Amino acid sequence: MALLTRRRLLQTGMAGIIGTGIAPMMFTKGAWAQEFCNNPTGDTVTFGFNMPLTGAYADEGADQQRALTLAVEHLNGEGDGGLLPTFSSKSLTGKGVLGKKVAYVTGDDQTKADAGRDSARRMIERDGAIMICGASSSAVAIAEQALCQEMGVIYMAGLTHSNDTTGKDKKKYGFRHFFNAYQSGIALGPVLGEAYGKDRVAYHLTSDYTWGWTQEESMKNATEALGWKTITPVRTPVGAGDFSQYLTPVLNSGADVLILNHYGFDGVNSLTQAVQFGMKDKTVNGKKFEIVLPLVSDLMAKGAGEAMKGVYGTSNWDWQLKDAASAAFTKSFGAKYGQPPSQIAHTSYVQALLYADACERAGTFYPPEVIKALEGFEFDGMGNGPTLYRDTDHQCFKDVLVVQGKRAPTNQYDLLDVVATASKESVTYDPAIFGGELGPDTAAMC
Amino acid sequence: MNALLTSRRDAITLAIFALVVLTMPVWLQPFGAAYPGLMQKFAIYAIFAIGFNILFGLTGYLSFGHAAFLGVGSYTAVWSFKLLTMDALPAIAFAIILSGLLAVVIGYLSLRRSGIYFSILTLAFAQMCYNLAYSVLTPITNGETSLQLNLQDPRIIDSALAPRPAGLPSASLFGHTFSGLQGFYFCAVMLLIAFFIAQKIFASPFGMMLRGIKSNQTRMNYTGFNTRPYALTAFVISGMYAGLAGALLAVTDPLAGAERMQWTASGEVVLMTILGGVGTLTGPVLGAWIIKYFENIFSAFNEQIVSRFFDFLPAGMHDVVVAVASKFVGEGWNLTLGLVFVLIVVFLPGGIMEGVRRITHMFDKSRRAPPTPARLSTQPAE
């Protein structure tokens, strides 16, 4: 009680000082002291990194962890600085964030929404994490984003490709740098039309959760716009392992294209098994049978090996891009881990930097101010070209890459060819098409 | 006289138990576990394990499908939040009723067999429930994405009483919303009530009947008892406990996912009970706490922390020890848990409670005769 009155007194006093107009800027910045969740008081600030270290997307999670650790090093001025020099906003200096050294805690979300929320709560309630970054599954990302909204902690989503993350389930405290299924559809549609013609019948196998559903819908819309027909899609459980029971009916269904709305180990397994079924060599309706993997990563291409060759998909980023930022990140990551970064590593790294930068520009860790700094933020030098963080849905808009499994890789990491780039303008859409509400930005006390 | 003594001992146990549970935020501090999220889990899974033990510990029927009731409880509670009100009590009531009904159906069918056949039947039913929730009933359960609150939810009672708040509401009790520590105390009180009821069941003639089923069901039948209604009652009660636990999971965090019903979750409660001590009152609670502690704390250790922990070792040895130790933490927490489980089952077949008893007897040897081995050995169901 005594503490409360003392704080009241301080607040009133502060208001008085500001009111008289003699307060310099630094006073107004400090005026939110202790009024929000996990306000860092010491000389460190803690980031919470929550990723799948087990489960169907564990490979992705491992790479995510590497990238986020690297981001912390660079923020603290260790290593070669990575993207700090190329980033268009120059407020990050390598001296931590707002003068505080960045520390981090990690957790395993097990690729499960429940476990992810548990882990995020531990980081927020026990470890005092000021922001949560991570996830490799949209189901987990959406669940954690909702939790973070409740707790008043900013959530920088990792790899989440469902339209719902920044659509139906968008949150004021959630931000996504990664692209989404709708954009994949826009980017992939024309390429597929050119390569496979306008008269095709598609068979969808879809991961049975938010990401699969929205990607299936987006791919369906994009391919039907070309004139393709769609056979009733089939839903498969996440982490199924054996997809043969779902693949058996494909060849007798009259379809001549198989669209695999699968990711991680699921994508690797279903693609490899489809190829083992001889699908790539079949001819149906007088046309060569084709397989499409709308969302693909290096890690999946590596896992699928031979099966990936010639298969089309989309990516958020690729380490073989020629711009200075991509080269800098690949170099920095490669020097530390001896392998090129995957797209999930890139997006997670960028998210951590973007959060740190927004705090610097806002001059505070106070979430509503940081949100304001991120909303509508335009930047460049992060490997994707000019990028916009749209304020209405917290989705990033940038070029989308259409990739194809390389037929003659020169080394074990040279797996994907960038065959086309859909411009930022072409993949921009009206946020109203997905509905949803951001909700309030009031700072909670967790 | 004897009954009076038991009830007095029960009252003392309950008092000590209450003290231990309610002071969790204090004594868990040094273990790094004194944050609301985990303490809520401690209380909730303790309820789950106590309920499971009423079936497994007393009747010897090993159910491998209790997660189904947990999941149904969660889904019911979240739907109650979505459709009616954010108040916790109706959600809990609906959850207990619905999981109880499901337990009647599953129990009625499964209890026609005993032993391993019963276990397999319950497992099959639970997997069916899981698959229904995961892919067939997605309009109700939202599948892998898991069921969550929405800004557009009707919440009929709440919106009739007061204007809608701006953000997502959180669970409340008579209009008083609770979060964090209050949420823990709410769960803790529920745990104490659950513990008290379990004590009463253990001490009652009904409990005696259940123990009779465990020791020799055929003999019970020959003496003229129809055991099945008793076993079914025990099954339903333990299903309702699981439903309560599921509802509390939703109350503390309004989200329900299908993975709560997976066989691993069913297996987990079996592990909790065996780890702590089958057929004892406090054993399953201890088991639940240890497993949840491992899951939440050990899984969060990363190489950094391990490295800091072994800082005192010389450089060369340090690296080796860290490399080995870090395999057992982080994503390897299951490995550690498995080891602990094996050690306990091999050396203390009666679980942690047997260890506790052995220690107390070591001190009491001079005063009391050693325990009869019959009390310590656990007997499988027929």
How many strand units of chain A? 17
Residues in helices of chain A, as a percent range? 25-40%
Number of domains of chain A: 2
- Overall pLDDT metric of chain B: 88
Strand content of chain A: 15-25%
Give the helix/strand class of chain A. alpha/beta
Largest sheet of chain A: 7 strands, mixed
Helix fraction of chain B by DSSP (H/I, runs of at least 4): 55-70%
The CATH topology of the largest domain in chain A is given as Rossmann fold
Q: Roughly what is the average pLDDT of chain A, rounded to an integer?
A: 89
Q: Give the helices and strands of chain B as they follow along the chain.
A: HHHHHHHEHEEHHHEHHHHHHH
Main β-sheet, spatial strand arrangement of chain A? 7-6-8-11-12-16-17
The portion of residues forming beta strands of chain B comes to under 5%
Order of helices and strands of chain A: HHEHEHEHEEHEHEHEHEEEHEHHHEEEEE
Q: What is the count of helical runs of chain A?
A: 13
Brief descriptors of the model:
heterodimer, A: 446 residues, Rossmann fold, 2 domains, B: mainly alpha, two-stranded antiparallel sheet, 70% helix, 2% strand
Task: Put the structure in a nutshell.
The complex is a heterodimer of chains A (446) and B (382). Chain A has 446 residues and is α/β, with parallel strands linked by helices.
